[in-house]
């Protein structure tokens, strides 16, 4: 077991490579990193999403996907954490949706200087979104603006960048449908009820996903994004020492994982920046190991582990743990569904920002 302090992008890159070589690392080699913080449910009736299309920018920006790809591939080389950061950013953008929001890049808006109304990204649940995700979108947008001024929405760029990183990390490639407009509103107060928590029960998760038009299967499949990326100790420390007030660790955690995590995440006074990988076997590879890990009690968050234990979601976990092709196929479909949540079309409901951080006045 080793703890790594990541100080610069090169170190991170070397670490990523060495990790990929070390895929066979034993469980006790869980790496902990310090990174600068920067229902069986029927889907409820909801408005059908606006139509998006793969060729939406065929005339106005024919090379859009390639332009974004040139940025994402560079980011992935320089700073592999940009991948999980951007995928999570897309998820948080799409899920915050109360009548007026959804996949609309409202998460990218900065609070107006001097304003008392905070933007979405300042909400408590968004505080740990890594800067690398925002940086990726801003760089891609700058390049796209230089070639196709005023044509492409920030929300489409975020959707394309998230897909690129899934693929760059070893996951499926899928076509991204486009035509989203950016949102005119971004309010921190809309976030809390729309983002799942590390200690959410399966019932709560199912209800939340169903409220976005996403099924039980979509939920289990999208959670597979936790095959890459990291979580801060505070998200799982309760499982290590005092699970649900029992003063004992979560019995559903493998004792070797428990021991390794306790070494880096003390009950009190641990470093706020310490993070642990979601997937202890292949933390930088987009594969289906997440599901196998859950079956072996190696889930990091209580919400992850809960998926394997619940009789409704457990069978999907076991199926995907055995079948990588199916996971990839279903993940691509579920990302398209998630990418359609609350999508806006047209000037009446949306805007086309040139700078993703400020609304068009
Ligand atoms: C099912 C309910 C979910 C819960 C409860 C949940 C919760 C969390 C939490 C607590 C973190 C750690 C944040 C931190 O400490 O910095 C995290 C990270 C992450 N989540 Fe989720 N999440 C869920 C679903 C999803 C979905 C649907 C996606 C994408 C499709 C996703 C993608 C990610 C990624 C990639 C990371 C790693 C981010 C990084 O390393 O920068 N999550 N999630």
Automatic annotation (TrEMBL):
PROSITE patterns: PEROXIDASE_1, PEROXIDASE_2, PEROXIDASE_4
Compartments in which it is found: Secreted
EC number: 1.11.1.7
Gene Ontology cellular component annotations, sorted alphabetically: extracellular region
Substrates-to-products reaction catalysed: 2 a phenolic donor + H2O2 = 2 a phenolic radical donor + 2 H2O
Gene Ontology biological-process annotations: hydrogen peroxide catabolic process; response to oxidative stress
Main location, first listed in the record: secreted
SUPFAM superfamilies given in the database record: Heme-dependent peroxidases
Pfam families the record matches: peroxidase
Site description Transition state stabilizer, residues in chain: 88
Superkingdom field: Eukaryota
Keywords annotated in UniProt: Calcium, Disulfide bond, Heme, Hydrogen peroxide, Iron, Metal-binding, Oxidoreductase, Peroxidase, Secreted, Signal
InterPro entries named in the record: Haem_peroxidase (IPR002016), Haem_peroxidase_sf (IPR010255), Peroxidase_pln (IPR000823), Peroxidases_AS (IPR019794), Peroxidases_heam-ligand_BS (IPR019793), Secretory_peroxidase (IPR033905)
UniProt binding sites for Ca(2+) 1: 93, 96, 102, 104, 106, 120
GO MF assignments: heme binding; lactoperoxidase activity; metal ion binding
Start and end residues of each Plant heme peroxidase family profile domain: 51-360
Entry annotation: catalytic residues: 92 (proton acceptor)
Cofactor(s) listed: Ca(2+); heme b
Cofactor note: Binds 2 calcium ions per subunit.
Record-stated family: Belongs to the peroxidase family. Ascorbate peroxidase subfamily.
Cited function: Removal of H(2)O(2), oxidation of toxic reductants, biosynthesis and degradation of lignin, suberization, auxin catabolism, response to environmental stresses such as wounding, pathogen attack and oxidative stress. These functions might be dependent on each isozyme/isoform in each plant tissue.
Protein name in the entry: Peroxidase
The species this protein was found in: Linum tenue
């Amino acid at each position: 077991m080793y703890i790594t302090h990541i100080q610069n992008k090169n170190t991170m890159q070397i670490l990523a490579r060495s990790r990929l070589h070390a895929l066979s690392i034993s469980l006790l080699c869980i790496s902990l990193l310090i990174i600068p913080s920067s229902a069986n449910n029927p889907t409820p009736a909801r408005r059908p999403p606006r139509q998006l299309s793969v060729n939406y920018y065929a005339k106005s920006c024919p090379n859009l996907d390639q332009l974004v790809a040139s940025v994402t591939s560079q980011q992935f080389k320089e700073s592999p954490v940009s991948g999980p950061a951007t995928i999570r950013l897309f998820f948080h953008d799409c899920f915050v949706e109360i009548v007026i929001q959804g996949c609309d890049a409202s998460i990218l808006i900065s609070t107006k200087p001097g304003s008392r109304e905070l933007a979405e990204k300042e909400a408590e649940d968004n505080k740990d979104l890594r800067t690398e995700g925002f940086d990726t979108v801003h760089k891609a947008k700058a390049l796209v603006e230089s070639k196709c001024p005023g044509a492409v929405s920030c929300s489409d760029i975020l959707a394309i960048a998230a897909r690129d990183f899934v693929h760059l990390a070893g996951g499926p490639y899928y076509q991204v449908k486009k035509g989203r407009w950016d949102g005119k509103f971004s309010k921190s107060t809309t976030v809390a009820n729309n983002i799942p928590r590390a200690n959410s029960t399966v019932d709560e998760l199912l209800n939340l996903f169903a409220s976005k038009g996403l099924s039980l299967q979509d939920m289990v499949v999208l959670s597979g994004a936790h095959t890459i990326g990291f979580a801060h100790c505070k998200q799982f420390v309760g499982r290590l020492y005092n699970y649900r007030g029992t003063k004992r660790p979560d019995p559903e955690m493998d004792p070797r994982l428990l021991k390794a995590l306790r070494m880096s995440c003390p009950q009190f006074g641990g470093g706020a920046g310490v993070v642990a990988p979601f997937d202890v076997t292949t933390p930088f590879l987009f594969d289906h190991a997440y599901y196998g890990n859950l079956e072996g009690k190696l889930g990091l968050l209580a919400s992850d582990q809960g998926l394997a234990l619940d009789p409704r979601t457990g069978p999907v976990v076991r199926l995907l743990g055995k079948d990588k092709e199916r996971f990839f196929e279903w993940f691509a479909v579920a990302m398209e569904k998630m990418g359609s949540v609350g999508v806006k079309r047209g000037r009446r409901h949306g805007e086309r920002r040139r700078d993703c951080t400020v609304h068009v006045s």
